[in-house]
Amino acid sequence: MNLKQQFKEGLITNNPVLVQRIGMCSTMAITTSLFNGLGMGLSVLIILTCCNVAISALRKAIPNDIRLAIFVVVIAGFVTIVDLLLQAYIPALSASLGVFIPLIVVNCIIIGRAEAFCQHEPVGPSFWDGIFQGFGYTVVLVCMCLIRELLGSGTFGGGLIDITEGFRLTLDGSGAGIRIFPETYGATILLMPFGGFLTLASLLAAMQYALRKSAEKKEAAERAAKVEVVKEAANNA
């Protein structure tokens, strides 16, 4: 499997959220600001990549009967490291994400990639699988944050961008973001739990529509190619 194919799978054709439909709990729960979504996405990307590499490197030494237990131990170790680093260096993000960082231990994306990919593949492909699958997950989180935050409160980059004293990025969650329109005109329901379900459902529908159209286009091209082959064979006969 080449890098281009792995990138396409992670972002589009095998996206962990929009195609595999896993890891949706945290996706809906924390995507109320860009600060939360980007922080959660990058945390999962780092943990997923590290776990993929470790599990792939150990795959020949892991007994098949207890592989899931070992996967969980490896994942828990890296989750603990990331959680402690966030508490030490970005406490605002750690407090904002709360229990969802420790819950990465049982995130189906990480366990699923370990089970479906890393235990069969060498370290190199497993490393890039972690990068691209984590990137695909992060992109979905960021998209949901942008939609919910913009339409719900009228801002962009809440918690991450501060423009009170010039444009600057903040890591303490204090950035008010860029005001696009007054908050009174926002659909505040999008910032509530129902808004997470509604936004994710819309993205799932859009992805399925795009994949179906792509498949139909590919099928039509294959049929046209077969017709041309038959016509050419008939002409030669």
Structure overview:
This protein has helices spanning 3-13, 24-29, 34-58, 67-89, 91-97, 108-118, 123-153, 193-236, and strands spanning 155-156, 161-162, 168-169, 178-179. The model has no long low-confidence stretch (mean pLDDT 90). The protein contains eight helices and four strands. The strands form two sheets. Strands 1-4 form a two-stranded antiparallel ribbon. It has a two-stranded antiparallel ribbon with strand order 2-3. A hairpin with a 5-residue loop joins strand 2 (161-162) and strand 3. 67% of the residues lie in helices and 3% in strands. It has one domain (3-236). The chain is mainly alpha-helical and 237 residues long. The protein is flat, with a radius of gyration of 21 Å.
What's the structural blueprint in terms of helices and strands?
Layout: H1 3-13, H2 24-29, H3 34-58, H4 67-89, H5 91-97, H6 108-118, H7 123-153, E1 155-156, E2 161-162, E3 168-169, E4 178-179, H8 193-236
Antiparallel strand pairs: 1-4, 2-3
The helix/strand class is: mainly alpha
Annotation, overall tally of beta strands: 4
- Which stretches of 5+ consecutive residues score pLDDT under 50? none
**What distance separates the N and C termini?**
40 Å
Mean pLDDT: 90
Integer-rounded radius of gyration:
21 Å
Tally of domains: 1
SSE series? HHHHHHHEEEEH
Q: Give the fraction of residues assigned to helices.
A: 55-70%
What coarse outline follows from CA principal-axis ratios? Answer: flat
**Number of helix segments?**
8
Strand content: under 5%
The major beta sheet can be summarized as: 2 strands, antiparallel
The strands making up the biggest β-sheet line up spatially as: 1-4
